[in-house]
Design brief:
Layout lengths: L1 H25 L8 H11 L6 E2 L2 H8 L8 E6 L8 E6 L3 H22 L4 H8 L2 E5 L2 E6 L3 H11 L1
Antiparallel strand pairs: 1-2, 2-3, 3-5, 4-5
Helix pairs in contact: 2-6, 4-5
Length: 158
C-alpha cells in the first residue's frame, strides 16, 4: 500500500514538473529575429508611401521615451497635420521598458484623439481603430489601411 502511494506521489511530481516546464517555456520570450527583418516585413505591407521616416529626436519627443527604453525603432508619420497615418516599430529587451513604451503610445493616441474629436470625424475614427501589439520584445503601433496585413506580417516574422 505504501509503495503504491509513493509511486503515485512520484508520478504526480513528474506531471507537475512537466506542466511547470511547459508553462515557463510558453511565456513571452524576447525574439531573436533581427530588428531589420521585422521592420522590413511590416513596412512592406504598411500604408507608408507618403510618410516621412522620423529620426531619434522626433521619435523620443513624440512618445516621451529615453534612449535606454529601447534598442531600435522605426517611426513613420506624415508632414501634414491632417494625415493621421503612422507606423512605429520598437524593440526593447526590457519588460518594464516595454510596458512604458505601450503606456506612452496609448497616452499619445488619447492626446491625438482629443485633438481630432469634434472637427475631423474621419481622422478620429481612423485613430480610434489603431493597432497596438506587443510580442517578444517588439511593439508595433499602426494607424492606417489594412491593419490585418500589418498584424499578420508582424506575427509571422516573429
Amino acid at each position: 500500500m505504501n509503495k503504491k502511494i509513493l509511486r503515485l506521489a512520484e508520478v504526480l511530481c513528474v506531471i507537475l514538473l512537466v506542466v511547470f516546464i511547459a508553462y515557463v517555456s510558453s511565456m513571452d520570450k524576447i525574439s531573436t529575429v533581427p530588428f531589420e527583418d521585422v521592420a522590413a516585413a511590416v513596412t512592406a505591407v504598411s500604408d507608408i508611401k507618403e510618410l516621412k521616416e522620423r529620426d531619434k529626436l522626433e521619435f523620443r519627443d513624440k512618445f516621451s521615451l529615453e534612449a535606454e527604453d529601447y534598442i531600435d525603432f522605426v517611426c513613420y508619420s506624415s508632414e501634414s497635420v491632417m494625415d493621421v497615418r503612422e507606423l512605429v516599430i520598437v524593440f526593447s529587451d526590457n519588460k518594464s521598458a516595454n510596458e512604458k513604451i505601450k503606456s506612452n503610445i496609448e497616452a499619445y493616441v488619447n492626446q491625438k484623439l482629443e485633438l481630432f474629436e469634434g472637427y475631423a470625424p474621419q481622422e478620429s475614427k481612423m485613430i480610434s481603430l489603431h493597432m497596438l501589439e506587443q510580442k517578444k520584445g517588439y511593439t508595433v503601433f499602426y494607424i492606417g489601411q489594412d491593419k490585418e496585413a500589418v498584424l499578420s506580417a508582424f506575427s509571422e516574422k516573429l
